[in-house]
Amino acid sequence: MHKRVLIISGPTGCGESTLTNEIVKRFPIFKRLVAATTRSMRIGEQEAIDYYFLSEEKFKDEIINKNIIEHTYVKNRGVYYGSYKPDLDKKIVGGFNIIANPDIVGTKYFKENYNATTIFIKPDLIENIRKRILNREPSITEEELADRLVNAATEIKNEMSYYDFIVTNKQDMLEEAVNEIVEILKTEGFKLS
Known about the structure:
Number of domains: 1
Number of strands: 9
Helix content: 40-55%
Mean pLDDT: 94
CATH topology: Rossmann fold
Strand content: 15-25%
Order of helices and strands: EHEEEHEEHEHEHHEH
Radius of gyration: 16 Å
Strand order of the largest sheet: 2-7-1-8-9
CATH class: Alpha Beta
């Protein structure tokens, strides 16, 4: 039996989305799970490609209807994120492997319910997270940036041990991290074509 679900996760700005996109590009049998969120759409984002953007009321209805199978409320940002089951089911039925990018709550859920392989993406330096966040969101306030950096340090310290593998995403060394993930996929028994 081949593995079907891969978790690539880590603190905000660690590069998990970039690494996920690289794996999807190289191995078309992989599809990214599109999560649901109550946050506002950023410039350049698209509905059902980047996220399913839901109102808080709709998000809560989807939890009740069991369409959001795990979720987290990010208190300091006032937003919900969750795994959207209709997207997951559609891709699994289509024969694809899934890559999801949840937080620790989702990671534990997918490990327990889908036998997921879990990879924690660790930055080489917290300063590189600062640069990536500022690059992505130039209008972010200093206070919000400081909160995110504290959260990132806390996640690295408290959550890394829950993952099967740790991959360090060094600044300007993306290829190295991608190759490390590809080796993990091979040893974990994922179908790559």
